[in-house]
């Protein structure tokens, strides 16, 4: 063998050691937090496959832990007799609640920039992790209308003053060169249609009382007036422009965090609405504009702000039949959730207005000044995600949308330096990306709770620190998701009267998904 051939074989061998073939386990990296990240590059990333279930009489388990397990798959036998465990979770399939719409993230300018900062191979790898059959099943995507804090500049689509006919309306380069191509690629990778959700942060400055798209300020005039109707048409034009690229939107919200431009002087893009103003704008302007457009079936989602505003905000808007006829759902953000129990916000709102769905439209770790920015490998943040999702699901929420799909090592870019964390962190210098523990937190829900899955009852034999939620999927299979935030190992069994008993264990600081067929 020649020297050159020897060197070539050695190079191939070393390359295989560094970047094994696709389909293996997490390449763990530790950065000093309480768990690990999984490193991915253009040729390798841990993947899960379609997660098919064994036949009736067996069950599948998927485990992620602070210790480093990541969707670790297991199989076991369903027993016909109880194991005698003191703690038993009983599936009550006859108790039926809401149906799942889906899970996902946001294609912000920052997310698009970070994805595109990678090589084409790494870009494809990252998108596959979210959207392909081997990935985690995202089917909801939130898209900001024009700029937000996770942009690198301030802009809207209609910055020409007094352009009430929107003759100069035009999408930005960020849409045409970044977000639209990536959304098209995501759709091509997905085996089902993505449901896109649009949210505006601010109207153009010339439409606003403040004359700026940042800080406090609201629309000039009154609902039904020229400016409010122009702002409604701005939404229609956005939908029309994206439709030219074969991207249609399932829903639009009434605007991101209306209290940000009303009660607080945010340094980034914001626009204030009181619930009364929002009610009348929907009734007089946005609702009729959508009905008269090519998008009469596009859902209008109310609020798009923190859930502690419920049920008051919903009462003001939905008690009005003129506004309520155009609205389909209520969007909530997770910030400040600890200040109000979910039953007093989500639960009460559902019972008052059961015909309107509740959906989580934004969440991220690292937003608080007490715990700011990126923390590579934080399991505590993964538990925060899972805790909030389980709480929401158990209080009638039909879906949960994370914030930025991907950010850089600083938690940006963000033009106002409002840096936060993300489920995927990109290291463009090394052409790699890290899947955070929060990525796997999302996976335990998004990969297994298919659209149309219906929440069912679960009863517990004794008090436990475990948190859990159960669903029957459209094919009749059952999914039970369990969070153990304690430092103790918890032994338990699951009883599904349709199949039998499943003995199981929740390790300390773990997230466990159990799934089984019943037919």
The count of helical stretches stands at 11
User: What is the CA-CA span between the terminal residues?
Assistant: 59 Å
Low-confidence stretches: 1-22
Strand order in the sheet with the most strands: 4-3-22-19-18-17-5-20-21
Biggest β-sheet: count, sense, barrel?
9 strands, mixed
- Please identify the structural class as seen in this structure: alpha/beta
Principal-axes shape call: globular
Q: What share of residues is helical?
A: 25-40%
What's the rounded overall pLDDT mean?
A: 94
Beta-strand content: 25-35%
Strand tally is 22
- What Rg do the Cα atoms give? 24 Å
What this model shows, in words?
This protein is an alpha/beta fold. Helix content is 26%, strand content 26%. The protein has helices at residues 3-18, 109-116, 120-131, 173-189, 226-243, 275-291, 312-318, 321-324, 342-352, 379-393, 437-446, and strands at residues 28-30, 36-40, 58-65, 72-77, 88-99, 102-106, 140-145, 195-200, 249-253, 299-306, 327-333, 357-362, 397-404, 407-408, 424-427, 432-435, 454-460, 467-472, 478-484, 490-496, 500-506, 510-516. Helix 2 crosses helix 4 (173-189), helix 5 packs across helix 6 (275-291) and helix 10 packs parallel to helix 11.
């Amino acid at each position: 063998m020649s020297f050159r051939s020897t060197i070539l074989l050695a190079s191939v061998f070393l390359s295989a050691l560094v970047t094994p073939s696709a389909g293996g386990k997490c390449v763990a990296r530790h950065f000093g937090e309480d768990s690990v990240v999984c490193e991915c590059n253009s040729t390798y990333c841990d993947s899960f496959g379609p997660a098919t279930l064994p036949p009736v009489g067996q069950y599948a388990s998927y485990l992620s832990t602070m210790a480093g397990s990541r969707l670790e798959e297991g199989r076991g036998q369903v027993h016909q007799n109880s194991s005698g465990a003191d703690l038993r979770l009983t599936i009550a399939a006859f108790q039926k609640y809401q149906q799942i719409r889906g899970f996902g993230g946001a294609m912000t300018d920052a997310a698009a920039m970070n994805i595109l900062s990678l090589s084409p191979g790494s870009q494809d790898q990252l998108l596959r992790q979210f959207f392909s059959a081997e990935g985690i099943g995202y089917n909801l995507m939130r898209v900001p209308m024009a700029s937000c804090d996770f942009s690198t500049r301030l802009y809207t689509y209609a910055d020409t003053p007094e352009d009430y006919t929107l003759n100069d309306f035009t999408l930005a380069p960020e849409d045409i060169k970044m977000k639209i191509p990536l959304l098209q690629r995501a759709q091509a990778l997905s085996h089902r249609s993505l449901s896109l959700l649009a949210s505006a942060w601010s109207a153009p400055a010339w439409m606003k009382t403040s004359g700026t798209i940042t800080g406090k300020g609201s629309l000039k005039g009154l609902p039904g007036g020229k400016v409010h109707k122009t702002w409604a048409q701005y939404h229609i034009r956005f939908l029309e422009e994206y439709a030219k690229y074969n991207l249609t939107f399932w829903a639009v919200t009434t605007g991101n965090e209306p209290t940000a431009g009303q009660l607080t002087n945010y340094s980034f893009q914001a626009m204030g609405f009181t619930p009364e103003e929002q009610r009348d704008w929907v009734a007089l302007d946005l609702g009729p504009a959508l009905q008269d457009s090519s998008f009469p079936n596009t859902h209008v989602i109310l609020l798009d702000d923190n859930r502690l505003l419920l049920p008051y905000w919903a009462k003001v808007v939905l008690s009005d039949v003129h506004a309520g006829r155009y609205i389909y759902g209520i969007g909530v953000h997770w910030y400040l959730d600890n200040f109000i129990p979910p039953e007093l916000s989500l639960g009460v709102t559902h019972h008052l207005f059961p015909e309107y769905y509740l959906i989580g439209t934004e969440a991220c770790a690292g937003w608080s000044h007490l715990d700011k920015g990126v923390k590579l490998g934080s399991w505590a943040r993964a538990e925060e995600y899972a805790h909030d999702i389980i709480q929401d699901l158990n209080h009638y929420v039909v879906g949960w949308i994370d914030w930025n799909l991907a950010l850089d090592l600083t938690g940006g870019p963000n033009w106002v330096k409002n840096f936060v964390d993300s489920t995927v962190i990109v290291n463009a210098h090394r052409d790699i990306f890290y899947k955070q523990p929060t990525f796997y937190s999302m996976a335990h829900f998004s990969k297994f709770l298919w659209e149309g899955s219906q929440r069912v009852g679960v009863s517990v034999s004794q008090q436990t620190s475990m948190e859990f939620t159960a669903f029957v999927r459209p094919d009749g299979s059952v999914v039970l998701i369990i969070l153990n935030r304690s430092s103790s190992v918890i032994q338990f069994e699951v009883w599904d009267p349709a199949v039998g008993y499943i003995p199981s264990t929740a390790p300390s600081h773990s997230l466990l998904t159990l799934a089984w067929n019943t037919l």
